[in-house]
Amino acid sequence: MTVEPLQKGLTRRIRSEISERILSGAWPPGHRIPFEHELMAQYGCSRMTVNRALGPLAEAGLIVRHRKTGSFVSRPRIHSVVLDVPDIATEVTERGEPYGYDLLSRKARSATRRELEDLGLDSAADVLALRCLHRASGRPFALEERLINLESVPEAEGVDFGTIAPGSWLLGHVPWTEAEHRISAANVSRQTASILTIEPAAACLVLERRTWRGADKITHVRLTFPGEAYDLVARFTPRPNPPAA
Questions:
Q1: Is 245 within the bounds of a domain?
Q2: CA count, 13 A, side-chain hemisphere, 25
Q3: Where are the alpha helices (DSSP H) in the chain?
Q4: How many CA atoms are closer than 13 Å to the CA of 13, on its beta-carbon side?
Q5: 3-60 pLDDT, tens per residue?
Q6: Is residue 144 part of a domain?
Q7: In whole angstroms, how far apart are CA 209 and each of 16, 25, 167, 181?
Q8: What's the number of domains the chain is made of?
Q9: Torsion 89-93-95-101 (CA) sign
Q10: Distance separating alpha carbons of residues 64 and 96, to the nearest angstrom
Q11: Could you tell me the residue range of the domain that residue 105 belongs to?
Q12: pTM higher than 0.70, yes or no?
């Protein structure tokens, strides 16, 4: 038997055993796959054989490979309805992952000109500026940068957002009547990439949202998700054909 068939057989074996551990739940979302050198030692093979085994798993979406930190079991994407205002905590827990949350910064102050534009305000206003990190299975899931208009929601200044995410609190305490979404793809700053523990060049999905309660402008939020973790879905029907002239 030649060396090449042996290598192909070993490649299939490595791929199959890793796939089985993932699909059986033995390795849950976020679990780190053994480093390449660990797999080389375990199977007595070359780095090329390991790469050939891991490549198709990444292409199939079972694992995510990072140049410096290694390979991890993929987290299932959250599919969020575009025309709704989702609660991240609920969506993470509903897919079976532990949810975590960190308040990174909080400050009540006068809004800047750019922030007034983000909120759709024409005159000076005080805002509560919050920066938060959402986690799924202990890993960074989304960076939230939120402004709450204290002219419309003054009670927000007294809320302990160290223990509850602002989005969850707003959904439970401040009914909204209208929302606007803006969705884009972006390469983020090094600071944001560091917070999300992703490569600086990694693609991210950015969701910006404004909400209103009647004529009151309530909040503006910018949510940055690693591209591998989140997508947005809308289901709709065609508009009725206009009547013939």
A1: no
A2: 2
A3: 3-23, 36-43, 47-59, 88-94, 113-119, 166-173, 190-196
A4: 13
A5: 466 677 889 899 889 988 887 778 887 889 999 999 999 999 999 999 999 988 888 7
A6: yes
A7: 42, 35, 11, 5
A8: 2
A9: positive
A10: 19
A11: 78-233
A12: no
